Amino acid sequence: MGAVRHSLAGRAETQLQARLLARLRDDGPLSKAQLADRLQVSRTTIGAEVARLGQLDLAVEAGPAASRGGRRSTLVDLAPDIRFAGISIGATGLSAGVTDGRLTTLLVRHRDCDIRSGPEKVLALALELLREVVAEAGVVRLAGAGIGVPGPVDFDRGVSVSPPIMPGWDGYPVRDAVSRELGCPVVLDNDVNVMAVGEQHAGVARSARDFLYVKIGTGIGCGIVVDGELYRGVDGCAGDIGHIRVDDFGPTCACGNTGCLEAFAGGAAIAREATAAAVAGRSEVLARLLAERGELTAADVGAAVGQGDAVAVQLIRDSGRRVGQVLASLVSFFNPGLIVIGGGVTALGHSLLAEIRGVTYRRSLPLATGSLPIVHSELGPEGGVIGAAKLISAAVYAPDARVG
Amino acid sequence: MGAVRHSLAGRAETQLQARLLARLRDDGPLSKAQLADRLQVSRTTIGAEVARLGQLDLAVEAGPAASRGGRRSTLVDLAPDIRFAGISIGATGLSAGVTDGRLTTLLVRHRDCDIRSGPEKVLALALELLREVVAEAGVVRLAGAGIGVPGPVDFDRGVSVSPPIMPGWDGYPVRDAVSRELGCPVVLDNDVNVMAVGEQHAGVARSARDFLYVKIGTGIGCGIVVDGELYRGVDGCAGDIGHIRVDDFGPTCACGNTGCLEAFAGGAAIAREATAAAVAGRSEVLARLLAERGELTAADVGAAVGQGDAVAVQLIRDSGRRVGQVLASLVSFFNPGLIVIGGGVTALGHSLLAEIRGVTYRRSLPLATGSLPIVHSELGPEGGVIGAAKLISAAVYAPDARVG
């Protein structure tokens, strides 16, 4: 019984530490009295815990708090030199940044890369970029790093699993490899999950408890937040909506099937259709862009829309209609409070969002769309950096959590 | 500060009561030592709480526990005379039953009814049936009642909301009306939610944390369980998959739209198509059944399948294919660990389930279906009674919960 009591006390302490540090991260400096109220423990317990966290260089006393009447309380803050790294890897580019303990970004850098060049090359590039950021921001020590990659992840093991658009990554131990390089704890998640978390922490989803983050980049994926927490599904592949079949026939997808949403509506699909239109002489604007640049991207289609090109407008509308079709089903099923649309293709501007909105609202039950905002991401790629940093902060602040 | 401490203590006590009674409900009689271990509180605290719950007629001491070495502990059980009622209302029939405090059903009765005859009539019938059950089972006092209805519900307010197949029910205060009649607390939920909870408590989903319960009756709906808890969505209409649009055209649905899953694949749709085939002379078997009975139901189509009728087989396969199509999308999105298929149409037998399985597995990502059982409900309508009783038991055991 003694051993059981001891381990229970240890667990309670761990939970208190995690809750206290998460409060300071999300709500800013708080007085000991406020912490006692919010965490429902005594001021004596808070005092002892803050002293212990001070010795661990995680929290500091930051002077007297504003008076609430009665005895003045002491303000507590996160240690000012806590630094987290966030790396968000997409199919064609990556972002690396560092944040303080409260996840305010100190510096973020972006770089082009091709996910298909394999894990060694891409991770070396990501670490090189992160080291530049770390040096430039004067970071002495990283408390941990979070990484997002554009495909399914086994979160517990920290590896990529059967990623359709990531040849060479299947089973690669991303978490452990990066942890070894950086000498700090690392967590690995799906890119849409880290973006959803970032948008929830610092972006347009701040007040949302149940929402979807839909990323339309080269591929299409969805982060799912249930009651404020990421929902990953039993195999960690929840939100893999890019491979929902929207038609019995259609172009072959990177996953090998036909009829996938991604193969109709993702950035790669839009570029492919635009190239076909240019080559076939169906669009002068796209043909000129193709001649100038050698290849077309989804961004070029956006430029053609800006020049009033009818084919480009139709491509965007087709993409938005397919995405809206799938979202309407998900709205009926999941009844979210908010849908955030992010990813590179959203740079195409309002026409895509308008089409997605129109189809989603038209095809869903009125009850589920009565108050359902469908909005653009506020943070863009920086959201991935903040979200990745948040995931590792949760692991670092809760010392029992299993991280690499 | 004194007042705050007091209310915190009150809340902790409430939570302890709810957790303790839920343990006794779900795990059976437990010794005080086991309760202390599982709830992570001291044996002294357990002793005091059990004494308090004894005065409230909720728990009793049930003699000495088996020895675990050392001092012998006392066994604690739920009070033996706790009785809950569960009422599960479908489009064409209802079930009413009573359970003990541990949700073992003492007696369940079924009766045909037509949901379209409106709330006064249907609820009067349900209460009449429940009173018969209560009398026959010798119940002296109901601690509470749970009700499921076949349409969206505002759970907090206890009313039906815009139910497509339930004319006259929109905004009807079901919970308060029934609570007044029975003189006990009542909770109201969607029929698929209560069935999902029942199957989780006593049926095929006992070990599942993340699963879907898909009911194919007159209409089609889905209960969603996330991390062991019902997920209702922000407006309470999550799981309304019957109105996902599976085709741009198609028969008009009860909701007024065209192309809804339910209008293709629900029991009413199967009966409608079978009648058309019988009238057009495309199926001798169905024509004979129609002549004999005056109208055809989905069950008649099942009988025709049993007689090898090709048209009936095709109707079932078409229904299964449409359902599988939608489930494949939901599997990609939600990555559940189990799908339970329930509702009246499942009485059609294995051919429907086989078709649903085939299409769902074929169209989903391999990662998400590697270990995804798709199985029939074990409990049938009794599951709804148990689930409804479980929802009210949670409210009764947690005295602060808001119920009518």
From TrEMBL, chains A, B:
Enumerate the transmembrane spans.
none
User: Which Pfam families does the annotation name?
Assistant: ROK
What family name appears in the similarity comment? Belongs to the ROK (NagC/XylR) family.
Protein name in UniProt: ROK family protein
Q: Which organism is this entry from?
A: Nocardioides flavescens
